[in-house]
Amino acid sequence: MSPILKLLRPHQWAKNALAFVGLLAAHRWSDAAAWQAAGLMFAALSLVASAVYILNDALDVSSDRLDPEKRERPLAAGTVPLRLALGLIPVLLAGAVALAWRLPLPAQWALAAYASGALLYNLGIKRTLWLDVTLLAALYALRVIAGALAASIEPSPWLVGFSLFVFLSLAALKRYAELTRCVYEQLPGRAYLRADSAIVLAFGAAAAVAATVVLALYVNAGDVTTLYSRPAVLWALGPILLTWLARMWTLAHRGQLPGDPVLYALRDGGSWLAGLALLACVWLAS
User: Fold this and answer.
1) Closest to 136 in 3D by CA, of 155, 120, 158
2) Which residues, including other chains, have CB under 8 Å from residue 30's CB and lie 6 or more apart?
3) What is the pLDDT of residue 68?
4) pTM score, whole prediction
């Protein structure tokens, strides 16, 4: 991979597939216009994300050089000049604006909120204890909200609540995995000490349970009968989700979860099996 392409981190764009979650949750599977709008949001989010990653790398050059994995990033390794990297940011943002211009105004505001939150994260919140994890979770949830609004779908409060808790658990999992691999007393560029790993584990596990509880409450709500003919099948979703999250946390505790847990899940056979099981339950309940 060329250094500039590596700088853009195209593999991270897979996270923006969350833009299609609202469309699928609303059962708009055959709506071509909705798919096109969500696709535009996916592309806009990807361009914004690449711009944010470049800014993040530019601000974290010193701390990245202390990390055994992050020191291979183009700016930390010196394979891409800093001036060239910074020049790419306005180009990427202009492309995102051009794509979002064709979307409904609420979707544009959601994209702007995502970009603003990502900017605030990189300008200082990422070095603030726990606020960084909360904002990371909110940014993941904003991807779901932005995609739904792009397809002219009002995001369900159940979907928003579930997204916040499940991504809060995954954001905490990312910090916990970093702490298990850290050889310093403090995580480079972050506010967490190695001694904080137990409390990060506790809160992340609690968020995982909370996400499962929200899912169970949704299955028991009256709204579910309007979308599913066999809603009782959906009760299987909770145990599958909780088992997957417990497995991810256990792998991190063993030091076997490298890097970003979301990207790890995209390459992990067990995660794919859990995802297919979740989809099978939704299909059988429909």
Assistant:
1) 120
2) none
3) 67
4) 0.90
